[in-house]
Amino acid sequence: MTRKIAFFASDAPTAQTALDALVLRFGQTPEAEADVIVALGGDGFMLHTLHRTQNLDIPVYGMNRGTVGFLMNEYGEDDLLDRLEAAVEEVINPLSMRAESRDGKIHTALAINEVSLLRAGPQAAKLRISIDGRMRMQELVCDGALVATPAGSTAYNNSAHGPILPIGSDVLALTAVAAFRPRRWRGALLPKAAVVRFDVIEADKRPVMADADSRWVEDVIWVEIKSEARISHRLLFDAGHGLEERLLREQFT
C-alpha cells in the first residue's frame, strides 16, 4: 500500500482546506520521491498538474474540489489509502501543436484535451485542412475547428457536437465549431497517427488564434497537430469509475 504521497491543490478555498487536512493526516512527500501525486481541484488544475509533472514517471490521482471534475475522483479522506491501492491506471498521450504566427515566430505546445483554432475577429474564419500532407478540404468557413483526444472528447469537442471517443481507441476527433460552409459538416474521425494541418485563409482579414489546453497563440497562419506518443500521462481512477466508464456514462445522460 502506497504511503508516499505528494499533495497539490488549486488556489480554490475548498481545495486549500482539503490540502491542509490531508497533509496533516498523511504527511507530505516531495513529488520527486513520491509514489503517487494527489491533485486537489477541478479538471483545469488536473491538466495543469499533468503538464507540470510530465517528466516524472509518477501516476496522478485527482480528487474533485472544483466544478465539473470529469478527470477527478470523488473527494474523501477516510479511505484514501485503500482507494489508491485499488485504483485503476489509465495512460493517455497528449497532442503536440506547432504553429506559425503572422510575425514569423514558431510556437509549440502540448494539449491533453484538444487543440482548437478560433476566429479572433468579427468575421468567420476560413481554414484549409490537410491530413498527412494531402489537402482534404479546400475551405472551411466556421467559427473554428479543433482536434481532440479520446480523453478530451467530452470537453469542448462534445460541446461543439463532436463524437465522444472510447478511451482505448486509436483515433482523434476533428470537429468544426459552428461551420457555415460546408453547412452540415461537423468533422471527421482520424487515425491517431495522422498529422493534421490547418492553413488560415485571409489571415490578415480574418484573424485566428490557436489554443492548446488554455495556452494560446494569436494571429496564426498555420497550425500542425499530431498525437505525441513519446509522452505518456498516468492517471489513477477509483475502481469501477475509470475513463472508459465515464465516457460511456457521459453518452447516456
From TrEMBL:
It is found in: Cytoplasm. Its cofactor is a divalent metal cation. Belongs to the NAD kinase family. One of its GO terms (biological process) is NADP+ biosynthetic process. This is NAD kinase. One of its GO terms (cellular component) is cytoplasm. It comes from Roseovarius lutimaris. It comes from the Bacteria. SUPFAM superfamilies: NAD kinase/diacylglycerol kinase-like (SSF111331). The keyword Transferase applies. It catalyses: NAD(+) + ATP = ADP + NADP(+) + H(+). NAD(+) binds at D43, G44, H48, N113, E114, D143, A151, T154, A155, Y156, N157, N158, S159, A178.
